[in-house]
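Sanity check. The docking grid for zinc ion depends on where the pocket ends up, so I'm generating a full predicted complex first rather than guessing from homology. Inputs follow.
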Amino acid sequence: MALPLTRLVIVLACFFALGPSLRGTTVVSAAPRAAFVPVLIYHHVKWPRPGDNAIERGLTISPAQLATELTHLAAGGYRSVTARDIAAFLRGGPALPKRPVALTFDDGYSDVYANAYQVLLRRRMRATFFIVPGFLDKPRYLTWKQVENMAAHGMDIEAHSMTHPDLTTVPAAQMQREIRLSRLLLESRLHRQVRVFAYPYGAYNGGILRSVRSAGYYAAFTTHQGWWQTETNRLVLPRVYVDNDDTASIFAGRLVADAVALAADPT
Ligand SMILES: [Zn+2]
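Predicted complex below; grid placement will be based on this.
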């Protein structure tokens, strides 16, 4: 009995000899990482045209509205982070800055080049563009050359499937191809890692989550409204819609999940 007891004493002595900081580190790293980050969803940034249908109008904000919102973010001390930054943080990477905000632009419409990317560049802000490779170089969409240029200037380019189907409705083989190939194609053209996915229409199920994980993605965003980005929820991360009729106080409410301000949102 004497030997085991001696060993126990040695083990305990070693544990306490580590000091409170190392013991504390062990405890912290065991907890899931989480951060409160509004991840804003945008699509088109352009002046509405008479021929735009209702869906397109709903997905469009004006360049003036974006400018106002970017000014609001800067005045409020917000720092832009990307989907890649959030994914890295949730996997144990660098801490996010104080007052983080992420701007995401889905689908790769051509208007975001001049009206979002170049505006962000001038303001030294970064954003994430969820790109559908099958749409590039087609009318109304960005070109490969533009996407390469955006990536070269610090923008975060991530995947949004190959052809933007509702992944819950297509055959499993196509669903897997859409998820895997969009990452591989973007990586081979841009020469950088693509490890974040956004579900077309925000639609997913258990099989899609498994495919996203096995295709090598670190994180994936839905269109569920929410602000907490958590390690345990890394494949179904929430975002926050921005409407084209948002007042300044509603936009401010979107950043902080203010229930009163959001209750005033008529849509
Ligand atoms: Zn989309």
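Relevant for the grid: The chain has one domain: 35-263.
Also worth noting: The CA atoms of residues 69 and 112 lie 15 Å apart.
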